[in-house]
Amino acid sequence: MTQTYEEYEKDYDQCLSRVRSFLSSHARSLTTLRECDRLLSQARRCATAMEALAKEGRDAFKLAETKRRAEREIAPLMQEVESALRERETGDIIIDRNRADLFSGGKYNAPNFDGNDNDQMMSALIQDSDELLLESQALCAQSEQIGSGTLNTMGMQRDQLHSAGEHLRGARSTLEQAKHLLQNLNNKALRNKRFLYCIITVLITANILVIVAIIKK
What we know:
5 helices; 84% helix
């Protein structure tokens, strides 16, 4: 089933958020870097699909935004992952890129801060913190949605268990009724059996008396 633009965009944001989370950690293992490379490839496929959908819908704004995001967000992260992979695999020492270039969501040419540029430096740091906060909020919202879905599923399961309990109680009631019916039938059969035994006894006695009377004559 074909996804919508918004669904591709959500997958795209999730992939980049995970990559940024991995790269912001000091422990960059080879396995983690390869996972980042896979996530970036997936994000690039999402961006391509988003661009195609924007063209189909003739949405110039979405088309331009998708191209801009792909250029400003994927390229710096891909370069950082490739550099880190080369460093891990070959042992070559590669100078770290500016963190703002990785997490600001664009091609960022870091200015040379000196002692008189504290305000500019603080503004860049605040921007980075704001964007990381937005990513954290998105992850929290996603976690909340997953939790809500889990609660809904548990509620449905609870209703199903309640319904199954009601059916079980109904089956037990039917079983008790059948048990009483069988007991009544058994009692009736026993009474009929005793009645037949009495009749047989009376008939045998009557036959004996008749035979005795015939003999005496």
